[in-house]
Protein 1
Amino acid sequence: MSAPLVDIRNVSHRFGQHPVLKNVSLAIEPGSYTILLGPSGSGKTTLLSILGGFVTPSEGKVFIRGEDCTSVPPAKRPTTTVFQDYALFPHMSVGSNVGFGLRMQGVDGATRAAKAREALALVGLAAAFDKKPHQLSGGQRQRVALARALVIEPAVLLLDEPLGALDLKLRRQMQDELKAIQKRVGTAFVHVTHDQEEAMALADHCVVMNDGRIEDEGAPERVYARPKTRFSATFMGESTILAGKAGDSRDGRVTVTTGLGSISLPGRSPADASVALAIRPEHLVLGDVKGDVALGIAKVSDVVFQGSFKRVLAASTQDPALQFIAKAPASAAVRAGDTIAVSCNAGDIILLAD
């Protein structure tokens, strides 16, 4: 097995006495699109800054292409960073902005111009070479910043919430464009965001962070369908969480005692261990059509139409503290105040250590 492109080993960091990263290790493969996902204060931006050379970790090492880059300054490591505010020079033309990194490397003017035109063509802005940044839209300026980063052919491109300033429609358009560009150039992208939908749309490697640690990582499909921790189950998408205690485990199944009764599901757990059962909204069944696990009766508190589905919140009548979060078909005749049966299939329940 070949060595990873980026190898972050046991990195910790403190600002004063406050720890922001706690013994983080992470491998990033060549050609991958890695998303660092987490809430504010989880350490994802600090980890990106350490990878880019803007912050030296208090402990640990960062290797890129097998070389120790822990203390190497940003300009001398094979990375470039695209910031949320784009940081374009307003007095320079778009072409000069894109070629600026090459200029700092001592590349001659004719070569700079040719490479800048190629990079702008790559991001669909070939006609913008002689324009100034203020003549472009937010999405176009974002693409200029991307072209400026790619033109110097980095081993790793770092993106710090690059779509945060865009409106919803443009953000989704840019997600598609970013993924397409990454596939064309083959550069490893590492992208920080707190937006779960953005992570699932872009990543082939999703890293969920919380309180300075990595909670979960892997393909987004796996992280969503079978999260490893309770935090991951509630941050990477929504889940209804049932607290319980594990009982007998046999033949690949475990019985869990919950406030709604005993539930048998696939999995294993030590007897008497405290566990949590997570159920994704699309796996909760409302009304007469029943799954193989009955979850009792609930009273609907809110129904929100979201285009292709309705998001339904309902409180269990058996355990009022338990709130079900369900997705119902857009055509479903469900409204606030309704009392409905709730069920699911055992195979869709996620068993987590509590």
Protein 2
Amino acid sequence: MNHTPAPSPAPAQRPSALASSLPNAMPEDPNARLLLFAFRRLGAHGLNDAHTAHALLQAFGGGFRRPLLLLRAMMADLAHTATCPIAIAPCCCMRMTGAEATMLTIVARAETAPDSARLLLGDLIGVRQPDGVLASVTALAQAFADAGRPIVA
């Protein structure tokens, strides 16, 4: 009997490769999941992504414009200021990159622990004084909280 071994999996299919690139589980908090979805969509498809606008309309109702505008401003600030790439996973992925988990932590801490959020943000985007970006992150966190959807990471 001729017995040939099964082909080895491609590098992207190896569990260790996947685990190292997506080390974090999705957040339990539905508000954090919403923000993660919107962050991924805008990061991958641009600031005028219709799916993001629709998701925020569904979540916030008629008050969706403020969180959407502030999310777009935060994304533009991140893109303009960051000196290193911020890894994002596809929208359908059920795990998070380290950068995504850090970003959710920054948003969650922006109002309650701004010094911690500032340090994490500076490390994430590779700048010593991320105060301008932190201001837009804080405004976004306030918009979610004001609408009854605070981010808990």
Protein 3
Amino acid sequence: MRLKAETLDYWRAPDPAPLRHAQSWLDQPGHQLILDADPRYPARLRDLNDAPPALFYLGDPDLFNVPQLAMVGSRNPTPAGLRHARQFAQHLAGQGLGITSGLALGVDAAAHQGALEAQGMTLAITGTGLDRVYPASNQALAERIRDHGLIISEFPPGTPARRDHFPRRNRLIAALSLGTLVIEAALRSGSLITARLAGELGREVFAMPGSVDNPLARGCHRLIRQGAKLVETADDILEELGPLLDNVSKVPSSSPREAPPDVHDKDYQHLLKHLDNAPRSIDELVEHTGLAVDAVSSMLLILELRGDVAMAPGGGYQKCRP
């Protein structure tokens, strides 16, 4: 392969500032780098022509090579889409399948959360350096995945979110997994890129059908017309992947797994008392409840995935149930 002139120039005289920043990040406890020569390097990534030569990671390296299902979809799904993502991830993670996604809002976050609630395995692939979380509102979720799963990036610390980074992230999501499930995707959704890449790599592609009146079902319907497996239950996926899952263990790591959060806890109930039909920002809720910002953000995520609260179109959160 012939390298571009600017690539050769970089390797001859690399910019020392990013290297110093990456080294400073790696010097911190729990911050790790794995090279493609390492036997623990994810074997499925070797199917890529442009497999990253190194991966930065936080969490449990035993999860690099567990059987995984990618779950992707809209950043603004319907309540039903959120519920399906969480419930499918719970069931599949409970059966020992790793749930892999991109730590985005919507379906991605719900899939990660469902796996955590099942005390199962989840892997997050990011489009930024691991010294930042994008979107920032998923900070609490990212910390839970770091402590009970695995977060991976090919981008060195200090790398910001850029539009062209996310297709690169998507190819890793597709390659790491045995198959990709798409839940609610518009016709121009990035989730369809992940599904296409999965198909090109010989992975299974699954799609959940929806109402013909739902614009977020159209991407899934297109995938089904193109040959994706129509999925109605989580067991449909287990049946299809069955021959590949004979040796799946429940949880390969000996690290402790957290119990699902108790939404009947007094802090959750205290937060719910300050929510009604009028949207309230996180700052308002922090001010009125006296709870910490990270606690409010984490609890709102749990309550949103349960369908108790919803993000209002103009921002803020409102109660869904009386």
